[in-house]
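Posted in: Structural Biology > Protein-Ligand Complexes

Title: Requesting predicted complex, fructose -6-phosphate in pocket

I'd be grateful if someone could produce the 3D structure tokens for the following input. Sequence and ligand are given below.
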Amino acid sequence: MQIVILKDAAAVAEYGAQIFIDQINRKSDSVLGLATGSTPVALYQELIKANQANKVSFKQVTSFNLDEYLGLDGDHAQSYRFFMNEQLFNHVDIDKNNTFVPPGDAQNPITACKMYENKISQSGGVDVQLLGIGRNGHIGFNEPSSSLASRTRVKTLTKETVEDNARFFAEGEFQPHLSITMGIGTILEAKKVVLLATGENKADAIRDMCEGAVSAVCPASALQFHQDAVVVIDEAAASKLVNAELYKHIESENQKLQQYLAELPN
Ligand code: F6R
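-- Reply #1 --
Done. Output follows.
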């Protein structure tokens, strides 16, 4: 795991966005894995800015979102399809026909999950997957006890996740307790994974993910098995890491190495 500790949420968003911009500029038809929630919003703002400044184009990009509430269609204001349109797709030059979110209104959700997996494979697989992390260590909607080999499937949300997300729903409004989510096995197949976390309320989850045992108790700990996982966090989210100074040292050495390699004659 590459653990990058930055001073604040703005720096986290910029760093994360640059990874996506570099990826698309290297491979214009990249396949991106995308996430919803509060954390990626600032990164999406950076991508929109870069697109509007002609620093990156999404014209040939394909995207797959991690998850969707089961029971909400894409026009519902709390659906993740709606969120993605509002927060990113409506503001960049992406072809919406190439953006995929698990169908929350699927007649047969089990078949829909299989079709989603097939679609990812047919696209050549995800080049870079963006992730947030729940306070309980979930990634996507893979809650604690999820199989670390799981595939896209219907998943029950924990009470904690339902409570955390209640802020987005009006009082009395139907709030789904089920979701369709990519599995942890699906996520681990992405060629690169970028997980962002900010704020003190993520500090326990970040410690368990990076320094705890690999365990279904903290689903994100499965990323310890990924050969190219980058964890980008602010000081607050890093505040419970025992080895924070080591990660900062490694990162500063990495920067020097990158600089040296960039200056090598061709
Ligand atoms: C969203 C998702 C979730 C969130 C996580 C953190 O697509 O997959 O795992 O990333 O719940 O959410 P925020 O960023 O709102 O703290």
